[in-house]
Every structure is written in structure tokens, then in C-alpha cells.
Design brief:
This protein has about 270 residues and is an alpha/beta fold. The chain has eight helices and seven strands; from the N terminus they run E-H-E-H-E-H-E-H-E-H-E-H-H-E-H. Strand 1 (about 10), helix 1 and strand 2 (about 35-40) form a beta-alpha-beta unit.
């Protein structure tokens, strides 16, 4: 018997085979889970449908998470097909490209509203509509990043959105804990995905992560996928309101010896 046999859930945010959401879906499917998928509009359907069909999905549906009626429709369809759900994965985030470069102070109100709405409020919306059909002992989790806690160059408004997401997760964990439903976040380290390419200077972030990480490597998609399997499964029945760091230890280190040497050399050159 597999770990997720008999478990049913939905993933919001799969877009290609080179993303964290797909890595999580792959681990869940291989462990026996029955997974529903959503895609953001017709353009994404061509990418997502083949992936979902490859995992024998019974539900593949369009959903703009900023539209309450579409979110409600998805969970209504989930109830028709599955009855109850055991897990919900929130892997949705977006910010305008111009807000992921330059100075944070130049973030527009429209850019702020877009990033916070898509990346943070959507978790509240998903939880609200999932609550009536979640099985006791169910799990909901979202994807975040260390830019929520520290300034990361060019992460800008997305860092603020992730901070809002993490705070929302804790309040949602308090609300849904009364029904024995867990709510958590995975904070993945810098990992090569198509979405990450939208962040200016991302290649430098990857190199910096290797220099900082106690494990001396970048985290892999498989690493994050396994963490998702843990949170979705009964292995994590005592874990809620938590941020699970999957970053090879980057979050625990202020600066590695290599980084301190680079900074020291730079300061020496600066003062000459």
C-alpha cells in the first residue's frame, strides 16, 4: 500500500514540468494520490492538460484565483467528483516584471494590488471554499520564499506578498485547526524554474545560495516535491502553522566564510 492511497486533493499552479508545483504533484501521484488540476486560462490549458492527463486526473479546470466565482466553481466540481478532499496545494504567485527589478520604493499601487491579490489573498480564498469539503485531518499548504523575511535583490514586492502569505497561513491554521485541518508553508530555496527566470539576477542568487548553504548545493525540485508529500500526507499530522524550510540550510546561516571573504575584499577595494 502506498502512502497516499485513497487520498484526494487539488493543486493550483502547475504550469510545466520544470516547476515546484509539478515536482510536488509528481511525488503525490507516485505515492498513490488522486489529484485535480487547475490552469490559468486557455493559453495555459495546452501545457497543463497533458500533464494532468498523464497523472490520470479526473478534474482539469480553468481557474483565475483572483475571481471568487471561479474558485467557488472549482471546489463545487471537486465535491461532485471526489466528495471530500484531503489536501489542497497553493502554488500560485505573480508580480509584474517591472516590479521585480530596480527599487522597491518604485512599486506602483497597481503592482502592489496585483502581487498581493494573486500571491497572498488567494490562499484565503482557497481555504474558505475548501473548508466545507475538507476531510478531518486534511492538509493545505502554500509555497513561499526567504525573501519574505530578508531583503533579496529584485524580489521586491513579491517578498512583501510572501510575508503576507505566511502571516495569512498562521491565521488560517488557527481557524481551520478547530476542524483538524492543517495549514502550512514550504519555503523553498533558490531553484531553477521557468518562473524564477523572471527575477533579475537569478543566476547570481543560485551561486550565492551554494556559497551560503551548509549542504553546499542548491535545493532540487525533487527535494521540494518530497517536502510537499510530507505535508500532504499523514506523516505531518502534528504540524500546522509552520514554515518548512527546504533550502539546504540557507535560512539558518547569516554568511558563509566564502561570502564574508568576498564582502571583505569588496570593502577593501572600496576604501583604497
Amino acid at each position: 500500500m502506498k502512502l497516499m492511497d485513497g487520498k484526494k486533493g487539488i493543486i493550483f499552479g502547475v504550469s510545466n514540468t520544470h516547476g515546484i508545483a509539478y515536482a510536488i504533484a509528481k511525488q503525490l501521484f507516485e505515492a498513490g494520490a488522486d489529484i485535480a488540476f487547475t490552469y490559468a486560462g486557455e493559453a495555459m490549458e495546452k501545457r497543463v492538460r497533458p500533464l494532468a492527463e498523464g497523472m490520470n486526473s479526473k478534474l482539469i479546470m480553468s481557474c483565475d484565483v483572483t475571481k471568487e466565482d471561479e474558485v467557488a466553481a472549482v471546489f463545487k466540481e471537486c465535491e461532485k467528483i471526489y466528495g471530500k478532499l484531503d489536501f489542497v496545494v497553493h502554488a500560485v504567485a505573480f508580480a509584474a516584471k517591472e516590479d521585480l527589478q530596480g527599487r522597491f520604493i518604485d512599486t506602483s499601487r497597481a503592482g502592489w494590488d496585483l502581487a498581493l491579490g494573486v500571491s497572498a489573498y488567494s490562499l484565503i480564498s482557497l481555504c474558505k471554499h475548501a473548508e466545507p469539503i475538507m476531510n478531518e485531518g486534511g492538509s493545505i499548504f502554500a509555497l513561499t520564499y526567504l525573501g519574505s523575511e530578508y531583503v533579496v535583490a529584485n524580489y521586491n514586492v513579491m517578498g512583501v506578498a510572501k510575508a503576507a502569505l505566511e502571516s495569512s497561513m498562521r491565521y488560517l491554521a488557527a481557524d481551520l485547526g478547530k476542524k483538524n485541518v492543517r495549514v502550512n508553508c514550504i519555503s523553498a530555496g533558490a531553484v531553477k524554474t521557468l518562473a524564477a527566470k523572471g527575477i533579475s539576477g537569478f543566476d547570481k542568487m543560485l551561486k550565492a545560495a551554494i556559497a551560503k548553504a551548509p549542504l553546499q548545493r542548491n535545493v532540487s525540485l525533487e527535494d521540494v516535491g518530497k517536502a510537499g508529500l510530507y505535508l500532504a500526507s499523514d506523516l505531518s499530522t502534528g504540524t500546522t502553522g509552520q514554515i518548512l524550510y527546504v533550502d539546504c540550510g540557507c535560512h539558518a546561516v547569516y554568511a558563509s566564510l566564502e561570502e564574508m571573504e568576498i564582502i571583505s575584499n569588496a570593502m577593501t577595494v572600496q576604501h583604497k
